[in-house]
Amino acid sequence: MNNAVYPLAAFLASAALGSIPGSLHARETSSVDRPADKVEASGETVAPDTDQPAGPFIDYNAKLLLTNAVSAIDGASGGGISNWATIAGRAETRGAGVQAHATAVLLPDYRWHSFGAAVGIANRVELSYARQNFDTQDVGTALGIGQGYMLNQDVFGVKVRLLGDVVYGNPIVPQIAIGAQYKRSLDGAIAAAVGAADDDGVDFTLSATKLVLAHSLLVNGTARLTKANQNGLLGFGSAADNSYSLQFEGALAYQFSRRFVVGTEVRTKPDNLGLGEDDWFDVFAAYAPTDNVTLTAAYADLGSIATFEDQRGAFLQAQVAF
């Protein structure tokens, strides 16, 4: 991996440690015992008065439902295919939260399975992990790597909220977060065979997310610096071009109720290997049957994967969060 990324990674680690409050037990009211949030005439969403003592652990489950988001395929909190500025877990600033997920993407020629977990600390720092498993099924034989060959990848992430709040404050000022994801393909020989320069790499993200409660509308935009081929499953960069490229991820969602949201996402991707790698798109619905469980289903269009076109199918995820 290019040594130039390490100063940036070190900066993110330093920012993460420096941004955690000295005490995670600050006096702040949770959603369990606080009055309802209100929207002033100016449109600004105001958090209730926080002059109450901290309560038991369950009181840390303070975020509004669904505002911890679901889990992206990279393991970070966000949409199914895009990274958001949200922080994992249901805890606000005086606690630590956690969420875990299992995801399946059912495509005509492939199967994607992933699982992972993310920890949110003081609604400021997020640490995440995901294991991605990509089943090539019959395509494995056509590609000469064997029937049902499984490509595997580990993704370790860190995200730091820099400013703003997803819900509260001025409705035109979003929550902004910076992040990094270290990705390590476990199939370096395959990555090298298709022309990848490396079997590991680091993505850097800058995200802005806002839920405008007055209109039940969530908007997200993310800039990603990456070298990843098919999200890293086919390695990083190529012999011809091993430089970073700037990609975009966006999401727009409407919250029909506190438990149900429908939206759409897009994620652009580089074509370093010249295999016709396409951008990704989905239309999703997420439902929270309980305060701690979120179920997500989506129609996902992943385009061409390793020269096999029209990879469209179902994205399914179950997530538990505390």
What's the arrangement of secondary structure elements?
Blueprint (H helix, E strand, L loop, with lengths): L4 H15 L18 E2 L5 E2 L23 E2 L5 E2 L17 E11 L4 E11 L3 E11 L3 H4 L7 E14 L11 E11 L2 H6 L6 E13 L4 E10 L18 E13 L2 E8 L12 E11 L2 E9 L10 E10 L1
Antiparallel strand pairs: 1-2, 3-4, 5-6, 5-16, 6-7, 7-8, 8-9, 9-10, 10-11, 11-12, 12-13, 13-14, 14-15, 15-16
Q: Ends: how far apart?
A: 35 Å
Q: Count of helices?
A: 3
Return Rg in Å: 20 Å
Cross-sheet strand order for the largest sheet: 5-6-7-8-9-10-11-12-13-14-15-16
What is the CATH class designation?
Mainly Beta
Judged by helices, strands and strand pairing, the structural class is mainly beta
Oligomer: single chain
Query: Strand content of the residues, in percent?
Result: 35-45%
String of helices and strands: HEEEEEEEHEEHEEEEEEE
Number of domains: 1
Q: Could you describe the 3D structure shown?
A:
- The protein is mainly β and 322 residues long.
- It has one domain (5-19, 56-321): monomeric porin ompg (Porin, Beta Barrel), CATH 2.40.160.
- Helix content is 8%, strand content 43%.
- The chain has three helices and 16 strands.
- The protein has helices spanning 5-19, 139-142, 188-193, and strands spanning 38-39, 45-46, 70-71, 77-78, 96-106, 111-121, 125-135, 150-163, 175-185, 200-212, 217-226, 245-257, 260-267, 280-290, 293-301, 312-321.
- A twelve-stranded antiparallel barrel has the order 5-6-7-8-9-10-11-12-13-14-15-16. A two-stranded antiparallel ribbon has the order 1-2.
- The longest helix has 15 residues, at 5-19.
- It starts with a helix and ends with a strand.
- Mean pLDDT is 86; it is low at 21-36 and 48-58.
